[in-house]
Amino acid sequence: MTTRYTHLLKPLDLGFTKLKNRVVMGSMHTGLEDRFYNYPKLAAYFEERAKGGVGLMITGGISPNKQGWLLPVGGTMNQLGDVVPHRLVTQAVHRHGAKILLQILHAGRYGYQPFVVSASPIKSPISPFKPRQLSEKQIFSTIKDYVKTASLAKKAGYDGVEIMGSEGYLLNQFLSRHVNQRTDAWGGAIENRMRFAVEIVKAIREAIGEKFIICFRLSVIDLVHNGNTMDEVITVAKALEKAGVTLMNSGIGWHEARIPTIVTSVPRAAFVDYTAEVKKHISVPIIASNRINMPDVAEQILANGQADMVSMARPFLADPFWVSKTVTNRVDEINTCIACNQACLDHTFKNIRATCLVNPRAAYETELVYRKTKKIKRVAVVGGGVAGMSAAIVAAERGHQVTLFEAKAEVGGQFNLAKVVPGKEEFHETIRYFKVQLEKMAVDVRLNTKINREQLEREGFEDVIVATGVIPRQLNIQGSHRPEVLSYADVLNGAEVGQRVAIIGAGGIGFDVAEYLLKPPTQIQPQLIEEWKKEWGVDTHAHYDSEGGMQNIEIAPPIREIYLLQRKMTSVGAGLGKTTGWVHRAQLKKHKVQMLRGVEYQSVTNEGLWIKHAQQDQLLRVDTVVVCAGQESVNEIMPKEGENTIAHYHLIGGAKLAAELDAKRAIREGAEIAAKL
Ligand code: NAP
Ligand code: SF4
Which residue range or ranges hold the NADH:flavin oxidoreductase/NADH oxidase N-terminal domain (predicted)? Predict the structure, then answer.
């Protein structure tokens, strides 16, 4: 079959072994790695993706010793008994011709446990535990632990290891002055700071020999104060090559960096220039990473000669068959990772199993199974938001005859609102994916159709899935019916908004609306990489001289005066996602949005919005009040308790519970109910 992704699908010969294409499934910690009884599930997770055609896979981080644990009793490989469960994984992957590396991750001071160690005894801002400084003797014993883990990985059938040297973990802590303040042979000049990483590579190569992949994940831009310059990064890369690495992977920014590196508002392939800069100075293949999620962007990076391979981690949670769909020119069938972090990294930080908002089967391959049905049923799905579409597609995939009723002229529900928010352009992809699947699964989609129960019963459906969603909650204060009071749906659908705005409600949607109103409507399209870097203070020079690749922030003055209000006394935005909330808060702060908590709403008059704040009555002189005060369920089509119906009714998504309206829950509930019909 001819393909336009020739660079992406070209094999890579590493001399002693061959990778079937240039696609790397990057390391993603699912949580299954940490418990051996979960390895059958982990093997199924990897097997599905190997079957999907990935060339090279990298496991979640496995520690070489207990000091290196990210979480208490995290996944470790340092004794023979650890090998057995890993064989399930390597055998499953090899059955489909893919290669797999075990990632050795020593968390250093990022460990959320009391045994933490680092280059210097400086606490990280993201762990409450202060690290002990590794003595020289302990450094040598840690090197031995890395070698032991690598040897055991070989025994377990891995094709190699990836040494995690970026994102602010232990080796990065040694590499950079940000943490390394030692005055011995392991600190000071870059030649000393890199000694630990280089010695580990040398020792593994010496112990295991040539026919074993050693990939090093190198921080190509630290994005922290006192981080390395590009000259220093290149010095490290060259030394690692000399020490014996087979592949170099790119790491972007430390986890504690206050510059986003993976959230959805980061433009696609934003950091590739730094990888390309390192590539000029080494001859081993280098892998690009971060915000690469679709074949066109991946192909372009390789065609431009900026990297030799591309790594994607979250995109393989979203779609295990990303590669096979690319090979067979079915790119429009790819379920795209929208970089929301809601079901993957936000789960990891809460120590719950990672999965995917757009693909609830991710890491649940053996539990959420879409079996072909033995009894074909006529199924109606009422509501074409993400909950309804998810249910319709899974039910149809299982062989049921499905009709989807949508009152509006298009499917997508709340995602149609989200997709117009700056930095949320990826939401278009999810709607595209769902639409393509509805067509592929031959779901009978009836748009502009507000169906009622009598019609459903008349048409003889056996099961009815009610996914009728929500409506925005209205404000109930004096003056709330005035024309200058708008709902978030009005605003995101294009209603005119004045220069001075008060937003009532500071949940996810309040923040979204604030971001939407920060820019003129004409500029609401994916941000250019250069402009984004200036806004966040990322050095725009590929060969940056600045420490950590940071420069002063350059930001256009705000086009509106915006207040974002909430009644609670908690800090504004405290309920947003762990890994994304800080980005939204920082974005609004930079654009001078005034965030007030503990607000009591009094009335809307022709002067503006009257509130009580800090015990005082205040007038916010605004032209528009936007209500983002949550939602109410719409579900009147559901039969009342005890009412007789022919069909079985099932309630899902926002229609079931508006208070916790959530796309992650909606899509999962749709899939789960359809899997049981
Ligand atoms: P939300 O998170 O529940 O926030 C609505 C806010 O409105 C509440 O926090 C509440 O804050 C306030 N409120 C509630 N009733 C009110 C009333 N009667 N009068 C005035 N204020 C009232 O809901 P949302 O912002 O609409 O978001 C809905 C869902 O979409 C969320 O659960 C979220 O998962 C999802 N979402 C997520 C993101 C994201 O970035 N991750 C973005 C958009 C949406 P106070 O009581 O403190 O005033
Ligand atoms: Fe991507 Fe969101 Fe799924 Fe994570 S949860 S893999 S960020 S779509």
Answer: 8-332
